[in-house]
Recover the amino acids of this structure.
């Protein structure tokens, strides 16, 4: 029995452990120049002059591009992935601190930086718009005065307002809260960068870049530069993490392209960490007002939410175009509800653009946070245990496929089983007893739960697109004469281990060893079209394409095998990795033998082409819906506000696990994200728009000392519509863990009367939450 | 300034700017791209190499400070084709995903095990606490270092036998 699934050492590790990975900045081309970007120190200012003459006189400087230079070539503005435009280099005014103004190209990276100091920019400062809640006020500074709508980007609603209002009016209990999901940044350890190499003779543009979506980027560069799409090659080499930050196209990439096309030489641009944190894709920044309605005995009836979304200076979110608020309207989560309604308003502010990045599954992070905080608040209001309240309201297995009040069809799930497993792993009753004992001693221990439903693997193409490109992905599979296979895929690993998992998928279908399947990715000249890796799409969409291609190869092999065995194809069955004659299983042929014959002089019946190659394009019928139950145990020092995450129990169900080792690694990462986002990671600004989180000294990331050793559990509920029953796992823990951490901290602070505290729960913010709350309720009045 | 630095056992004489960072000297001058640059502020540790016998963040060391000294990078961890147990461990225990922090993590791990051959998980966490990994949540890095501690120095067949029974194949 061939079974290629299971924990398997990663193929890609051979190069990484030797220091032989190839990241963009490792690549050196002959004659390559280095670019650096001059950025605005102001959040909002009119540019009256840019004088680059002194920079141009620098002996190492080859050229300087300004907004005016790019405007002459039609490159001063570029389309965003969401139908807006973004300045490549500012021509009229700057709209956020860190915005790109000029691009210096020099013979080495230090000289390029030096020359930035020689450019003189005259600014006429404008009042900045920093607080999104004032964006629509009369007289507010207008960020995008070239647009008719002022600071307003969109209003978007989902669900049934009248039905929801009726449910709320009839409810015994309504609990509501204003909560902020703060702006954060994915901060992959490798920053963004590119090398553009334009060959004027061939008319071909090659761009090595940190891209999670090379094919979508190819189309954008073709549209932008006029280089036809078949003459644009995007190569995404090893990526040092992405997490969504490498989905958009950034001005630096375009500047490198423009410079290379102007100079006919390769131009490298790699941003530094401050540039990365201040100008590339931020995430979240959702200001939410949520309400939950329930019966007195704890039956959830409905949810309502009003959201203000801060999109920064340009609407550069990367998400399906029909969904301006992403998938936020999945906010009824994992519970039975009669009605739900949400309104989302998006606005411009004088902050960096972005908004959908950082393992957020197109805003499901924000949705899960809202419903899981509200559920905990409801439990507090009702005096119920939060685990009991969740168990009472979770969707039941027999309800799947389940259509939510806002229109999502969840494919499969056994939610109570996952929650019960988490409670058992944690020994939840013992934790509550320990908590009571500690509270009696004046120690503040918190137990936080979160139950989440994810939605990943975007498609179908008719419903979801980016720039009009439907979200379906291709796979090309070639089996060579010796039975060794090469699979080319459209998606792009940033560390997820595609070279291993995808080899396992194909090997499993063809009765091969994963060692015999080479996976090619990250080069648009060598791979089929597809939308790329984000929203945990790889396994649900591209993985499915690989399996469909492999099954086509298998069927083709059946015809060849029939010719070889002089049997009817219908008399063959695929069993234990071989085509076998029914009733005579010893008459069997494996793919290796069949591949040899398929390429040989063997006469094949009419209509059979020979060889063993196949292509597939997979258009997913629906998303897949992974889910999980998380429990976070914290200890909080009320004197300092310090939070220590003591335990993290995580039960994930992502359907069939192809490589459980890699799946667990993905969960580990997401749990660390949850701790970081909940406790420390926040991109913040002062009142005039100075970014206060522009380096790793200020934008704090969790280290080995903040992250506990996680305790993982699994249930397996296959997706009924995925070819192998798999769902995505890349973002589950990032989606599910922040509310578990916050619920835990708020639970720890319950004796102080704290019902909510906004992230990040830094020591200062925790301490303030205690001070602002009612006095301790667990002590006798003095 | 003229400097001579012994990198991974070979002497390199170069004329460099006084401000040149050691990480850029290694990467751009010598082509040793295994060490990575990640933050500029010595927070992330993707650039950790050894200066003489001590791990340093090479983004905050000037190349001229390495004049006359020895630098060891990830490229010297393996001896010929024989991997260091630390390298083997990161692959066996899935101690890496994107691989960007991995060289720095492995250099610190090697140093730790040279000075503390049998560390506790807490000691491993302390040792790598000045470095950032965005992929693993650190758990599998800790497991990797502990695996390496267990497999440091033994005969190769012993490692192979253990691997056959324990770690991921």
């Amino acid at each position: 029995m061939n079974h290629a699934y299971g924990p398997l050492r990663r193929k890609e590790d051979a190069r990484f452990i030797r220091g032989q990975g190839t990241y963009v900045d490792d690549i050196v081309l002959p004659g390559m120049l280095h670019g650096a970007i001059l950025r605005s120190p102001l959040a909002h200012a009119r540019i009256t002059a840019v004088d680059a003459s002194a920079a141009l006189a620098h002996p190492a400087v080859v050229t300087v591009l300004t907004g005016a230079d790019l405007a002459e070539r039609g490159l001063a503005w570029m389309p965003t992935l969401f139908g807006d435009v973004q300045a490549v280099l500012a021509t009229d005014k700057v709209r956020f601190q860190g915005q790109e103004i000029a691009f210096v190209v020099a013979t080495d990276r230090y000289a390029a930086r030096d020359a930035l100091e020689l450019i003189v920019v005259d600014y006429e400062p404008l009042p900045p718009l920093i607080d999104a809640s004032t964006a629509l006020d009369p007289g507010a500074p207008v960020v995008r005065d070239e647009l008719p709508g002022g600071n307003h980007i969109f209003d978007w609603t989902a669900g049934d307002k009248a039905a929801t209002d009726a449910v709320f009016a009839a409810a015994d209990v309504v609990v509501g809260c204003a909560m902020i999901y703060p702006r954060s940044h994915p901060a992959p350890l490798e920053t963004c960068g590119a090398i553009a190499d334009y060959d004027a003779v061939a008319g071909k543009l090659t761009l090595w870049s940190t891209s999670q979506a090379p094919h979508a980027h190819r189309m954008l560069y073709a549209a932008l530069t006029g280089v036809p799409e078949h003459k644009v090659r995007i190569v995404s080499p090893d990526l040092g993490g992405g997490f969504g930050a490498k989905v958009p196209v950034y001005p630096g990439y375009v500047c490198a392209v423009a410079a290379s096309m102007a100079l006919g030489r390769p131009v490298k641009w790699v941003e530094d960490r401050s540039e990365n944190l201040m100008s590339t894709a931020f995430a979240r920044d959702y200001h939410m007002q949520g309400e939950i309605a329930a019966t007195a005995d704890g039956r959830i009836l409905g949810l309502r939410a009003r959201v203000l979304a801060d999109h920064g200076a340009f609407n550069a979110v990367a998400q399906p175009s029909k969904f301006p608020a992403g998938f936020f309207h999945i906010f009824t989560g994992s519970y039975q509800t009669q009605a739900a309604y949400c309104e989302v308003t998006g606005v411009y502010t004088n902050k960096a653009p972005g908004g959908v990045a950082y393992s957020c599954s197109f805003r499901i992070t924000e949705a899960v946070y809202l419903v899981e905080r509200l559920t905990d608040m409801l439990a507090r209001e009702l005096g119920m245990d939060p685990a009991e309240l969740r168990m009472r309201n979770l969707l039941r297995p027999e309800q799947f496929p389940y259509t939510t009040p806002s229109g999502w069809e969840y494919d499969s799930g056994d939610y109570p089983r996952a929650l019960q497993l988490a409670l058992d792993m944690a020994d939840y009753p013992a934790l509550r007893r320990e908590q009571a004992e500690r509270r009696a001693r004046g120690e503040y221990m918190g137990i936080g739960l979160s139950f989440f439903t994810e939605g990943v693997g975007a498609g179908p193409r008719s419903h979801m697109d980016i720039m009009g490109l439907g979200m379906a992905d291709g796979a090309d599979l070639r089996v060579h004469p010796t039975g060794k296979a090469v699979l080319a895929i459209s998606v792009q690993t940033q560390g997820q281990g595609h070279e291993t998992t995808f080899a396992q998928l194909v090997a499993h279908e063809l009765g091969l060893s994963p060692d015999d399947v080479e996976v090619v990715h990250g080069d648009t000249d060598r791979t089929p079209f597809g939308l790329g890796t984000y929203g945990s799409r790889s396994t649900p969409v591209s993985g499915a394409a690989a399996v469909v291609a492999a099954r086509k190869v298998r069927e083709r092999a059946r015809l060849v095998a029939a010719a070889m065995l002089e049997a009817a194809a219908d008399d063959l069955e695929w069993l234990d990795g071989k085509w076998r004659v029914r009733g005579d299983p010893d008459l069997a042929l494996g793919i290796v033998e069949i591949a040899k014959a398929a390429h040989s002089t063997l006469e094949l019946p009419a209509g059979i082409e020979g060889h063993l190659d196949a292509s597939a394009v997979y258009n997913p019928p629906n998303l897949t819906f992974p889910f999980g139950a998380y429990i976070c145990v914290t200890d909080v020092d009320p004197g300092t506000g310090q939070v220590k995450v003591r335990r993290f129990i995580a039960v994930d169900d992502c359907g069939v696990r192809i490589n459980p080792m890699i799946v667990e690694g993905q969960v580990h990462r997401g749990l660390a994200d949850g701790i970081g986002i909940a406790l420390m990671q926040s991109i913040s600004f002062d009142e005039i728009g100075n970014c206060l989180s522009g380096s790793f000294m200020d934008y704090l990331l969790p280290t080995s000392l903040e992250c506990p050793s996680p305790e993982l559990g699994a249930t397996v509920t296959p997706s009924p519509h995925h070819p192998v029953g798999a769902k995505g796992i890349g973002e589950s823990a990032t989606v599910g863990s922040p509310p578990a951490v916050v619920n835990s901290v708020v639970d720890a602070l319950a004796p102080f009367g704290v019902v909510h505290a906004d992230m990040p729960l830094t020591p200062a913010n925790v301490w303030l939450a205690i001070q602002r709350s009612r006095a301790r309720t667990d002590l006798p009045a003095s | 300034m003229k400097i001579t630095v012994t990198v991974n056992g070979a002497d390199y004489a170069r004329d460099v700017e006084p401000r040149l960072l050691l990480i850029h000297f290694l990467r751009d001058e010598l082509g040793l791209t295994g060490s990575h640059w990640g933050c500029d502020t010595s927070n992330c540790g993707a650039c950790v190499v050894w200066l003489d016998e001590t791990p340093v963040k090479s983004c905050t060391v000037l190349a001229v400070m390495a004049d006359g000294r020895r630098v060891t990078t990830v490229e010297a961890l393996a001896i010929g084709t024989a991997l260091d147990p630390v390298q083997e461990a990161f692959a066996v225990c899935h101690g890496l995903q994107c691989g960007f922090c991995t060289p720095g993590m492995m250099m610190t791990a090697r140093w730790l095990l040279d000075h503390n051959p049998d560390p506790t998980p807490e000691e491993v966490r302390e040792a790598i606490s000045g470095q950032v990994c965005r992929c693993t949540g650190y758990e599998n890095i800790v497991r990797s270092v502990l695996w390496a501690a267990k497999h440091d120095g033994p005969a190769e067949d012993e490692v192979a036998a253990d691997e056959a029974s324990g770690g991921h194949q």
